């Protein structure tokens, strides 16, 4: 009985999260007849795409035992730079734009990785620093102007309007959901079925032990941060396509919300734990709440408080579930010291 | 057993200096296939440095290492692994977040330079090693959820997954109980039969002499003794390690017949921990509590100290019933506790020795204006530093820089500074070398002689025998025997513990 | 252990951020800053500094054009600064740094009125003239100058919106931040006018906050469209609100049936004016507003006063009106409504 319950709950409380999502959906359906529709579902999918891509990057870094706050800066840097490169109509299909942006992203990620792995510096501090650098360089040297729909490369505006499913008056499913889903599956497969993926878990579990069994920690970390940079850049281009504008002021500042969603999805901020499934659920839950408060009639003045309370609750449950059953040295040390 | 084959590992004239200090000064060692070779030495003798050099983690200044006929001037960790040298570290170096199977097979997956990881291949590789050694392990369990003994076995399995030729075991028995140690020895003998050469590093000389064929003792970076293990006694090895005669005889002070009862524990029970435990402790007495890991010996101490209070029963301190529901209550009642894992529970590692010493007793140093009396604090620190013979440049060194024995002394100092009437010590000499062990026991004797009541919880039986007036034996949460005076005998205790 | 290390990391990280923030402010104006800071600079030659909500936004880039023009015209040292993000904390720290540099005047477009009061009071105590913009009701400034009377401007938007919807139907209003004073007054002025002149229109939700974020505006507008399929009008306040709304409306295929109007600028809202998803945008020229602030600061520095009818010599600010309810607030008459027909006249 308890074994079956444990299996339902999942290794990172994915089951619990799914149950909460179902509960929220039921509650919102009761609160508003307009909620349970294809339109709401498509809108949820659409608004989850960019946070989900970012969340995958955050997940990888968290599993490896780090914290990355520079990914929104990498995302907008890569996307905005690529847009300005192709703005004069010098061709460039959507594919080329994605490729160029992801190369830029991987390059910026490599900078993070090299500093972190070579000099063994704390990831949070390194990425806080690079976040400022990336954003500063972007604004100062690449451009600070808002690029509106009319000035975007035509490949991007065309991509903006490509829908996979279009329900007249009931919303649409954007075609970018296809590459997003593919990337989600690829990252999940990588974490599960490649030695690289397992090495990331190992490094997050115990870096010294990883070194001792012969994992090339420096090389793995550099590749990891390059991958995360490329993911962030992909998310940045998706963001530009969906928003039909390129605004260098956007994205930076959203990093903590994404990290919160990933932690909500069961990843441990101390490293070594986390799953793609849980991350998807975490992001969906946050977006579900974030994007339907008007619909279910929560007054604007209360919306941010509501999101905050729900996040805090979710993350606390996760943290509690994760620490339960582990040893208690920390508490004891505090008490003795008091 | 006779060992005549050509050496599988040969270390010649290794010299290693750190900042001008000779950590190793011309050390040589040779290892035949199927030999268990004990490497003994006190902390700082150069054992760890030698292990690091053999495993490629550190580079020797001069000398050569020959593995299986190939001589390496400078060995990298990966070369060492590929040559068949495996180290089982004292901390096991496992991944707490991964399954047992993955921990075991990670090494071979990496060594084979695989790109894709296959759960079934990993499972099979792990299963093969586990079956080979005739173990039963839950391979799908996360290592974090396994017992220390199982983790040790996983560390061994991992070392063997890639056909190790030389296995270095660094303090493998520190966290194991008597019966687990016996099980480990069975495995070690099985490996030996398969021709694996084993370097066995341990503080516990009984074990060393029981399992090893040959023995090398290091002191101050030099080999001081080397030879057939059968030619040595405990005492001789101790002497070689410390350079002096270490007494291990039973030595207990007389307790005055009218010494007051300091602590009376009556019918103490806690669900899932222990049941109906009663004992008493008089001033000047040292009481030993022993039992296998999981017998409830630590839980009793934790209940008396309020960490996990008892469900029922009574605790009297100096004749008065006290409600002990928290650590705070216990401290108020005059009880001190030196926890089992001194490194995580008892000390602030990155803070100077001096501050650690007074951390628990700052309240006692307040002047009447509520300020700290710095002069009195300095006096106490100087006094404790000298009295406990802590070996550190000075009292402002951080605790992390200390050896196990010295760190344990700082924990002791911290509690002695509170001047508790009753001091509970859980495994006071775990991970401490012979010389330091003796000194810690001496300190305990001195404190008892001065009127303190001391409870030592330990599974180091020779240690208990050497200093306790009485010994309680716990089995499955119950007190199964109480030995006193001449009844105290190591073999008898061993027998009762396992019963 | 790990906990402690993390906490330490966060602390150090925050400090690093603060350092980055400081240095970026210092470097914003390398040559001017350096020469003015030196104690030898005479007071009458001191700097006029405009602090905007955030740098790198089209609107404030345009304001900087005005600031630079004014500097060129008058020969005085004027420059513009702003935090990288539109936060109150960012503005406070910039103003704190400025106080130490002792400029003649600080003109400021606050993110949060209440949040700036105390630091502006410090600036004035230090003898610095403070002029604000988009900040009616703020206390610790010499003069607040508005491009127009806010409620009148809101009413102007609603007049157009009501006309577009035919005086009937449901509508919602969006603000950048619920704490933003000007945005609140625009929607209040609009709401009052709707109540008086378009009684058949219904505001179906309390004002919605877009967090000055286009993506948020888009998502909220989508929710509104789902909840109120018959919605007839949207009024936006932050410059990107109408763009986000327009995108949602366009996707819903309701560009013709839904009127989208509100504050924006041509470079941001222009493409949706062309597509028809936005019907009209309203704004005032930030370059002129920037100049007006500086002109007022200069009059005050020369010992003059600002009164009803004062002429700043800047288009739209030829005859200031005193705003009711505050003794330090004046307004010009500089609001403009732009639709597809005249959008080409404005190149920012």
UniProtKB/TrEMBL annotation, chain A:
The gene is rbsC_1. It is found in: Cell membrane. This is Sugar ABC transporter permease. It comes from Actinotalea fermentans. The lineage of its organism: Bacteria, Bacillati, Actinomycetota, Actinomycetes, Micrococcales. One of its GO terms (molecular function) is transmembrane transporter activity. Its main location: membrane. Keywords: Cell inner membrane, Cell membrane, Membrane, Transmembrane, Transmembrane helix, Transport. It is a multi-pass membrane protein. The chain crosses the membrane at residues 16-45, 52-80, 92-117, 124-149, 169-191, 222-242, 279-299, 305-323. GO terms for cellular component: plasma membrane. InterPro entries: ABC_transp_permease.
From TrEMBL, chain B:
Residues 9-245, 241-499 form the ABC transporter domain. SMART domains: AAA. Keywords: ATP-binding, Cell membrane, Membrane, Nucleotide-binding, Repeat, Sugar transport, Translocase, Transport. It comes from the Bacteria. Gene3D superfamilies: P-loop containing nucleotide triphosphate hydrolases. The keyword Nucleotide-binding applies. InterPro entries: AAA+_ATPase (IPR003593), ABC_carbohydrate_import_ATPase (IPR050107), ABC_transporter-like_ATP-bd (IPR003439), ABC_transporter-like_CS (IPR017871), P-loop_NTPase (IPR027417). GO terms for molecular function: ATP binding; ATP hydrolysis activity. Pfam families: ABC_tran (PF00005). This is Lipase. It comes from Actinotalea fermentans.
Automatic annotation (TrEMBL), chain C:
It is found in: Cell envelope. GO terms for molecular function: carbohydrate binding. Belongs to the bacterial solute-binding protein 2 family. The keyword Protease does not apply. Keywords: Signal. This is Autoinducer 2 ABC transporter substrate-binding protein. PANTHER family: ABC TRANSPORTER PERIPLASMIC-BINDING PROTEIN YPHF, D-XYLOSE-BINDING PERIPLASMIC PROTEIN. One of its GO terms (cellular component) is outer membrane-bounded periplasmic space. Pfam families: Peripla_BP_4. Residues 50-303 form the Periplasmic binding protein domain. InterPro entries: Bact_Solute-Bind_Prot2 (IPR050555), Peripla_BP_I (IPR028082), SBP_2_dom (IPR025997). Residues 1-28 form the signal peptide.
């Amino acid at each position: 009985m308890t074994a079956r319950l444990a299996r339902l709950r999942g290794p990172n409380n994915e089951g619990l999260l799914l149950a909460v999502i179902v509960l929220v959906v039921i509650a919102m359906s009761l609160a508003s007849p307009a909620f349970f529709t294809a339109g709401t579902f498509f809108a949820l999918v659409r608004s989850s795409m960019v946070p989900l891509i970012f969340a995958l990057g955050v997940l990888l870094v968290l599993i490896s035992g780090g914290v990355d706050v520079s990914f929104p800066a990498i995302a907008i840097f890569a996307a905005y730079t690529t847009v300005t490169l192709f703005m004069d109509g010098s061709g460039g299909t959507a594919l080329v734009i994605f490729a160029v942006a992801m190369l830029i992203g991987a390059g910026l990620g490599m900078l993070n990785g090299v500093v972190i792995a070579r000099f063994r510096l704390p990831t949070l501090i390194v990425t806080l620093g690079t976040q400022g650098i990336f954003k500063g360089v972007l604004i100062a040297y690449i451009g600070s102007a808002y690029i509106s729909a009319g000035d975007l490369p035509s490949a991007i505006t065309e991509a903006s309007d490509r829908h996979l499913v279009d329900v007249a008056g009931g919303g649409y499913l954007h075609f970018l959901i296809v590459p997003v889903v593919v990337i989600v599956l690829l990252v999940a497969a990588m974490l599960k079925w490649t030695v690289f993926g397992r090495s990331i878990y190992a490094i997050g579990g115990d870096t010294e032990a990883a070194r001792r069994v012969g994992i090339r920690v420096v090389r793995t970390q550099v590749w990891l941060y390059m991958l995360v940079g490329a993911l962030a850049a992909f998310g940045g281009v998706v963001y530009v396509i969906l928003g039909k504008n390129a605004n260098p002021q956007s994205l930076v500042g959203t990093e903590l919300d994404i990290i919160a969603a990933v932690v909500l999805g069961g990843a441990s901020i101390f490293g070594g734990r986390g799953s793609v499934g849980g991350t998807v659920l975490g992001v969906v839950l946050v977006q579900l709440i974030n994007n339907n408060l008007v619909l279910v009639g929560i007054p604007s003045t209360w919306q941010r408080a509501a999101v905050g309370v729900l996040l805090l609750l979710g993350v606390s449950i996760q943290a509690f579930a994760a620490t339960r059953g582990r040893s208690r040295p920390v508490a004891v040390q505090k008490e003795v010291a008091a | 057993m006779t060992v005549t084959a050509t050496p599988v590992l040969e270390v010649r004239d290794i010299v290693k200096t750190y900042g001008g200090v000779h950590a190793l000064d011309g050390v040589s060692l040779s290892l035949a296939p199927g030999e268990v070779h004990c490497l003994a030495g006190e902390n700082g003798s150069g054992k760890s440095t030698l292990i690091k050099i053999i495993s490629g983690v550190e580079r020797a200044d001069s000398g050569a290492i020959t593995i299986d006929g190939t001589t390496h001037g400078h060995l990298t960790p990966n070369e060492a692994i590929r040559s068949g040298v495996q180290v089982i570290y004292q901390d096991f170096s496992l991944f707490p977040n991964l399954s047992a199977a993955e921990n075991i097979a990670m090494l071979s997956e990496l060594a084979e330079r695989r790109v894709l990881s296959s759960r079934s291949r990993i499972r099979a590789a792990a299963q093969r090693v586990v079956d080979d050694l005739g173990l039963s392990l839950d391979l799908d369990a996360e290592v974090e959820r396994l017992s220390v003994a199982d983790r040790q076995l996983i560390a061994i399995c991992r070392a063997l997954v890639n056909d190790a030729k030389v296995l270095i075991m660094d303090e493998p028995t520190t966290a194991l109980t008597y019966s687990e140690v016996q099980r480990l020895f069975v495995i070690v003998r099985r490996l030996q039969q398969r021709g694996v050469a084993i370097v066995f590093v341990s503080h516990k000389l009984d074990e060393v002499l029981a399992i090893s064929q040959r023995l090398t003792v290091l002191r101050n970076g030099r080999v001081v003794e080397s030879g057939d293990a059968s030619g040595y006694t405990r005492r001789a090895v101790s002497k070689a390690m410390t350079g002096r005669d270490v007494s291990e005889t039973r030595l207990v002070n007389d307790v005055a017949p009218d010494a007051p009862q300091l602590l009376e524990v009556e019918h103490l029970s806690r669900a899932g921990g222990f049941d109906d435990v009663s004992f008493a402790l008089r001033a000047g007495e040292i009481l030993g509590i022993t039992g296998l890991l999981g017998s409830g010996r630590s839980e009793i101490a934790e209940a008396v100290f309020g960490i996990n209070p008892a469900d029922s029963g009574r605790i009297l301190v100096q004749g008065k019933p006290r409600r002990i529901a928290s650590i705070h209550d216990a401290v108020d009642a005059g009880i001190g506790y030196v926890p089992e894992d001194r490194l995580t529970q008892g000390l602030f590692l990155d803070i100077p020795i001096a501050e650690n010493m007074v951390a628990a007793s700052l309240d006692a140093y307040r002047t009447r204006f509520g300020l700290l009396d710095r002069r009195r604090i300095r006096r106490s620190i100087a006094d404790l530093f000298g009295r406990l013979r802590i070996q550190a440049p000075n009292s402002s060194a951080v605790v992390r820089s200390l050896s196990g024995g010295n760190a344990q002394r700082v924990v002791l100092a911290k509690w002695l500074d509170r001047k508790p009437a009753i001091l509970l010590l859980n495994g006071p000499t775990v991970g401490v070398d012979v010389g330091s062990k003796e000194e810690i026991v001496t300190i305990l004797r001195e404190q008892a002689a001065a009127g303190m009541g001391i409870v030592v919880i330990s599974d180091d039986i020779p240690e208990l025998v050497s200093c306790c007036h009485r010994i309680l034996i716990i089995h499955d949460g119950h007190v199964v025997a109480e030995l006193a005076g001449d009844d105290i005998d190591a073999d008898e205790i061993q027998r009762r513990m396992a019963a | 252990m790990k906990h402690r290390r993390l906490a330490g990391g966060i602390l150090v990280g925050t400090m690093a951020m603060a350092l980055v923030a400081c240095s970026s402010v210092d470097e914003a104006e390398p040559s001017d800053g350096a020469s003015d800071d030196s104690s030898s600079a005479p007071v009458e030659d001191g700097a006029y500094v405009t602090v905007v909500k955030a740098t790198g936004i089209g609107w404030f880039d345009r304001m900087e054009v005005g600031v630079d023009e004014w500097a060129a015209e008058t020969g005085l040292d004027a420059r513009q600064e702003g935090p990288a993000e539109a936060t109150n904390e960012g503005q406070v720290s910039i103003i704190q740094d400025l106080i130490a540099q002792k400029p003649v005047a600080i003109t400021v477009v606050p993110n949060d009125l209440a949040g700036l009061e105390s630091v502006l009071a410090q600036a004035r105590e230090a003898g610095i003239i403070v002029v604000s913009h988009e900040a009616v009701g703020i206390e610790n400034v010499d003069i607040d100058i508005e491009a127009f009377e806010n409620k009148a401007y809101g009413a102007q938007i609603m007049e157009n919106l009501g006309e577009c919807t035919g005086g009937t139907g449901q509508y919602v209003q969006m603000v950048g931040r619920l704490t933003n004073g000007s945005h609140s007054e625009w929607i209040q002025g609009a709401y009052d006018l709707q109540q008086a002149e378009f009684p058949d229109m219904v505001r179906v939700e309390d004002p919605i906050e877009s967090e000055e974020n286009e993506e948020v505006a888009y998502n909220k507008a989508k929710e509104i469209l789902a909840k109120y399929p018959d919605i007839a009008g949207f009024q936006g306040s932050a410059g990107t609100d109408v763009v986000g709304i327009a995108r949602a409306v366009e996707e819903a295929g309701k560009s013709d049936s839904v009127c989208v109007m509100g504050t924006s600028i041509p470079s941001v809202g222009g493409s949706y004016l062309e597509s028809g998803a936005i019907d009209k945008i309203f704004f005032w020229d930030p370059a002129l507003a920037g100049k007006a602030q500086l002109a007022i600061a200069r009059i005050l520095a020369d010992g003059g006063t600002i009164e009803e009818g004062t002429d700043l010599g800047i288009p739209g600010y030829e005859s200031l009106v005193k705003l009711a309810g505050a003794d330090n607030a004046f307004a010009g008459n500089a609001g403009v409504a732009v639709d597809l027909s005249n959008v080409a006249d404005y190149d920012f």
